[in-house]
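R.M. (postdoc): so does anyone remember the format we settled on? I'll just put the structure tokens first.
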């Protein structure tokens, strides 16, 4: 299944750029066509979706760990947190690249969506830092940070409806709200990145499971006096 998924992602990544190049460029708020950099949309939105998905996966694993002490939940949580950092970095880089061409600026601190997205990324950077250097109880403290991050996601999404942002309202990213020639490559890109995310998560969880098994083996060897 892993190999099939990898092949599917590779095929989608090969097809998607051709569809993206053929897709029309929509009109901006001024009524004129957007800059050619609008093509970043087909990458920016899928990586943002994977970022938010990973936040909720991490939060779900953290809840399982806090409620039941689930080691499987903790493994999923730390794997998902690392992917928040990876996909979130892609989101924070591609957004300003698009903004620079479309709005003439890289970053605007008064834009609530930009600032809350940066806070989200920093929250999960803190999650990993706490797990690494927090000492006793670090896993529970990190789990709490993941829940804080999950609360931030709806704020990021809804910010364009309640504050004046440079970001437009999130209607263009809905398949029914765009030209069908745009929807086709967008949905393909979205599916490809989602499958890629699932594959990366599965690999990272498997690695974490092996690490835990190795730690347990070392502990059992110590208790049996085999490491003396």
């Amino acid at each position: 299944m892993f190999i099939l998924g990898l092949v599917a992602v590779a095929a989608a990544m090969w097809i998607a750029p051709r569809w993206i190049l053929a897709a029309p460029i929509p009109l901006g708020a001024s009524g004129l066509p957007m800059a050619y950099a609008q093509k970043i949309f087909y990458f920016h939105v899928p990586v943002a979706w994977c970022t938010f998905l990973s936040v909720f996966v991490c939060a779900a694993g953290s809840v399982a760990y806090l409620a039941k002490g689930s080691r499987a939940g903790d493994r999923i949580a730390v794997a998902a947190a690392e992917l928040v950092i990876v996909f979130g970095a892609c989101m924070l880089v591609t957004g300003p690249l698009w903004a620079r061409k479309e709005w003439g600026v890289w970053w605007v601190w008064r834009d609530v969506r930009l600032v809350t997205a940066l806070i989200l990324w920093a929250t999960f950077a803190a999650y990993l830092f706490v797990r690494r250097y927090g000492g006793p109880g670090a896993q529970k403290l990190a789990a709490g940070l993941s829940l804080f991050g999950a609360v931030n996601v709806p704020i990021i999404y809804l910010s364009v409806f309640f504050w004046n942002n440079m970001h437009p309202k999130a209607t263009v990213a809905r398949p029914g709200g765009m030209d069908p020639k745009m929807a086709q490559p967008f949905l393909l890109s979205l599916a490809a990145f989602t499958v890629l995310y699932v594959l990366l998560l599965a690999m990272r969880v498997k690695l974490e499971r092996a690490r835990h098994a190795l730690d347990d083996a070392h502990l059992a060897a110590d208790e049996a006096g085999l490491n003396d």
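R.M.: ...and that's the designed sequence above, right after the tokens. Also worth knowing: Residues 37 and 98 are 6 Å apart (CA to CA). The mean pLDDT is 84.
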